[in-house]
Amino acid sequence: MDVRRRNNVTVTGPADAPVLVLAHGFGCDQNMWRLVVPALAERYRVVLFDYVGSGGSDLSAWSQERYSSLDGYAQDVTEVCEALDLERAVFVGHSVSAMTGVLAARAAPERIGALVMVAPSPRYIDDEGYRGGFTAEDIDELLASLEANYLGWSSAMAPLIMGNPDRPELGKELTNSFCATDPDIARVFARTTFLSDSRDDLKDVTVPTLVLECAQDVIAPREVGAHVHAAIPSSHLVTLDATGHCPQLSAPEATAQAILGFLESRL
Amino acid sequence: MCRTGGVPEPSGTGDEAAMDAAFTALLEDSAEELYESAPCGYLSTLMDGTIARINATLLNWLGLKREAVVGHRHFVDLLTVGGKLYHETHFAPLLRMQGELRGIALEMKTSHGGRLPVLVSSVIKHGSEGEPLLIRTTVFDASDRRAYEEELLRRRQDAERAHAEAERARAEAEQARRQAETDRERLADALAVLQKSLLPDSLPALPGLETAVYYHTASPDQLGGDFYDLFPIDGDRWAFFLGDVCGKGPQAAALTSLTRYTLRAAAHHDPEPDAALSTLNAVLHERYTAGGDPRYCTCLFGILEPGTDGRTTVRLGSGGHPPALLLRADGRAEFLPTPGGLLVGVLPTAPFATATTALAPGDTLLLYTDGLTEARTGPARDDLYGEEALLAFAAAHAPAAPHAVITALTELLEGFGDGPDDDTALLALGVPAPADPATNDPR
Amino acid sequence: MTPLNITHSDTAAGPVLHVTGELDHARATALRQRTERLALRPGQCLTLDLSGLEFCDSTGITALLAARQHALAAHADIVLAAVPPALLRVLTIVGLDQVFTLRPSGKPPVA
Lengths: 267, 443, 111
Prior knowledge:
The complex is a heterotrimer. Chain B is α+β, with helices and mostly antiparallel strands.
């Protein structure tokens, strides 16, 4: 099995530099990082990949059984690290991938030496004494939205993206990224993401960790960022003056600076 | 355009004047008015999503007051929770990456707690330096379209389910077919083994005697109701039998099996035809008829005892079977009558007829079942061949060695339309004629 | 092929079954069931009128033997009446002409 091809691995940056592994969350693929990669790749070796089932990955390698738990995604991470023979790399995970990184670092401590958790949430659904921001019914609504947009993506989105004459390269990537997402796979990823509860796993984090949250994020409210920070003694919390769940897109410079600052402080 | 009333204008300039007036009226429909009352919702947000401007149409759809929205609410605040999650995980990243987005299905909340399915298109307005300034968004009421899409989706899911169902049924049918095929093969193997137990593989070689057989089963499972056998009973005597059990198929085969092995055992105990047939009669009667299930067979049973003079003595007993036929070396053909012998197995004790003859060199004894004499002949296949015709046929062929007789009769049977339509067994036994061809065909 | 037809009538001596058509492997069961349902009293005589029988094979003969057994079990008698020549020939070959009482016509004997 060729993991590099399976997970659509791309590598940029100086060959001998310390390695950053950037992992996308639910909904998109490695293109999520496009605005921060140039700044990071100046001084770091940047590894990008798609989880099996997303973006340019090999969909034939997908199985409902494996990808119905976050451990399956964490296995993708450790396998990518093994394929590239990485040692003590910095794992940067967005959204649900922040938790995937926690699981991967525990499974392969020799591979992952630090964590950057971008807009993390160990649990999205409210619980006793914990506010995740959503109810179980809310998650059902998201699944319904996915269903409703399956037709939307295939009929309305494809012509738009294909017919973007100004930026054909972007159109091609986005077509791969969004239109190739099988609705059945997206449904499994959504359920795994939003129904997971990884709060107990946070205590196992021993590596230096940066928790990067946005000032206003409907998916990961600030209480959640505070919870993660409190649960990981070795963590440092940075709140970006950004709105939304994707600071790497809405505030790419600030996001890159925060990551670089964390890396500099470690060295 | 249709004008009403008014005095007919002179042609040409009058029409143009009217057109101008109409355009003037339209131009008074100010851009502001067009924005506020357009048949779709408009809103502009800052890059952080804060709503900077929203038109009356959308406010009206959502039941919101302008002052409560502008500067206070974010675009995602207008969405349902599912819509929010979808916006954050799909819509916003994609919009950021490509600068515009069209026709995304979302749901908005109304102030009355309702939901409004909408189709949203957004475009980012950039500043002179290319920096993103704000997001312009149009919102279309998609209630009808969403209902249609949901119906479409439901139909598609139904179709997929039906397809999966059909696929499963097809796979099951295929499995059943394979199983049936396997069962059929196993059954055929079992039948072949069973069939072998009913008849000898080949006739043993008898010193100083020639033998030949013909055997045909009419049933597709190859289980015939006719039977024959030939086997040694002591130093120089041989026993043989040929018969026909009632019925067809597996039940007839069971009866045939019982008959064959009973006769074989009886022959070793007491080979006299009357004794062997009596034993068989007692066994069959006890097994079937006495229990209210009458089954029987007809049978010729005989002993061959080669003499010192080149002649072989035949002692034959009949239980309700058609008489054997003799083809003599001198060209005569005759029945060896055994009248009065009863079907075997019908009565607790039964009379059996016996007869004795000697086979001289060149003589052949033919035993047959009624598949031969009751073979249907004639163009309509509604005549029976009959014993007289058989006797005439034999007379025409005598003298004939066993193989020659069987060959001739096989040709005869196969000449009856599509061949014999009933079980048929023929057994011929004869003392070979001297090698000297002096005894030519006397006819 | 002519279908098998069985009609039933009663006489002073006992029931008469008039059997017409072909009595072969496929149809012999019908005759067997019909005779087995007959209630016979001791001393009665069951008559099988075979004047209309066009064909009879070994399973047909089995049905005749079953009828005989049924009659004997009820201490009744059985008669085959108006046996067609072809069947008579077969019955003679197999020795059943000695087992069954045969009568030329379907009419019961004069009391």
